[in-house]
Amino acid sequence: MIKRINDFLAGLPMTITGGVFLVLSFILPRTGLILPADPAWITVIICGIPLLYLAIWRIIYNKGISKISSALLICIAMAAAIAIGDLFAAGEVVFIMEIGAILEDMTTDRAKKGLKKLIGLAPLKGRKITGTEEKMIPADRIQCDDILRILPGETVPADGIILNGETSVDQSVMTGESLPVDKIPGDKVFCGTMNCFGSMDIKVTRAGQDSSLQKLIQMVQDAENKRAPMQRIADRAASLLVPVALIIAIAAGLVTRDIIRAVTVLVVFCPCALVLATPTAIMAAIGQATKHGVIIKSGEALEKMGKVDTIAFDKTGTLTYGRPEVSDILSFDDTIDKKGLLTLAASAEARSEHPLGKAITEHAGKENIVLQKISAFRMHSGKGISADVQGKTLYLGSEKYIVQNGIPLPTDARETLNRLQSQGKASVLVADENRCIGLIALSDVLRPEAKAMTGQLLAMNTNVVLLTGDNQKTADYFAAQAGIRAVKAELLPEGKVDSIQSLQAEGHCVCMIGDGVNDAPALKTAQVGAAMGAMGSDIAVEAADIALMGDDLSKIPYLKRLSNATAFTIRLSITLSMCINFVAVTCSVLGILTPTTGALVHNAGSCFVVLIAALLYDRKFE
Fold it and tell me: Taking Cα atoms as reference points, which of 215, 437, 444 lies closest to residue 321?
């Protein structure tokens, strides 16, 4: 009951109400209108009770010197001002403190829905095979060595090894790879990944809490629990401010034998400007970032971004667009040109559901190519397709698929395949019944701003690292294009987490930038996590501290500059507020200030801090 009342009074509507009565307390006496009771009493009640509650709570529950807080000093000043009858001064100090608390709460409010979505990926059932019997069982009853059958479109309910069947599996949840991976007997599959095409039987190797997906969920939970809340700067200084303020106030009262001077010292010593320094600067910076399509979820993330010296990038969907596009069309037959080869391949792939096939068909559409009618279309999961086009039977797929159909592969074709693989490209061979007639290569596409972004970060003495689930050759190729020297490839989610923890152990402050579900633990583990918000998964966006809503990598250097400027502004505001306090205390001891004028002076200091912070909003950082 008491907490509900306290929360109600500490809310924005009631705080504004308190401010209105404080203004009336200042204006009405100067117009000659005297009320039976000073309106500032309402301000003291509305804004003072939450501070008194906070001060008492910290005295009871906090340990050691942390029992002494800025809220305690404000309450002492409020009580002293009431004791000498200066209600305006009492209401003013508690009102300013409440405004500061509300501003800070607004900047540090964070959404934490990502973990629920991650848990939602866990499959609920699995198809267990016992002899000739096939039965659906709950996922929590699946055990190691069980035989499971996964049909096309189903989610893999446990980690395992394929016993029978060839298929393609979308394992972007775990590795972030943009393309489904072809699987054959003996290959591993992970819980939570999606079986795209063929049916497969697997032998369970890890189930339940030991599965890859459950470990992924646990890593996000652990990283979230390790996050300490941002400690208020004013409270960190309160252990010194409260004793110093009391000593100076008592000394001033005893030496001058003037209690008003003692009360004035307490009023001007209140760290209102100090409390406002951080939240106002952060509010202004977050406002500017929002204008530029960068969503910063907490002030803590913005402050930490200013300390970041290493930025780790995921590849697929982050440095690249995360979708395959045709990059090369190579004909091995002098009688067929590139357009003719594309016509044949796109016509054959028109009925394919494989992402590479769809990409080839889409490219043909962009080239305004008229597709031919086909017949006898067959899809061989994990291998390729065959179809009759223009009276010819065409085979499109991997090197292994072409050779299995008795079609020889030219020597130059093998060399070309190796070269394209070293460039991180996927190749689809095109053959008729007698020979291999050509090749179509597809590649993920590097974002055009990636290299310039990397150069700007390096110029700011910020290290850049690539962490990806792709194979080493693909990772090295794209890293070279983006100007990144440090590369770690073939990483599962726990591998990315380990890499970030290694960097942190070396003393680096790390920002992780990713877009996939598999990046969520790494985003949580890093001091700052940033997600590609427009194309990235909801889970990655929820797990991150920052979201780039336009998927524009050029915003990363901007974000770093903004964070640095915010940190500088906070330090400047704190320094100025302490200087103003020192001057005000001196004037209070000398009797130059009274409690009311002292309250106005330190209120002016608070406004000065807010003005400095507001300049961040329109500053140019690009």
Answer: 444
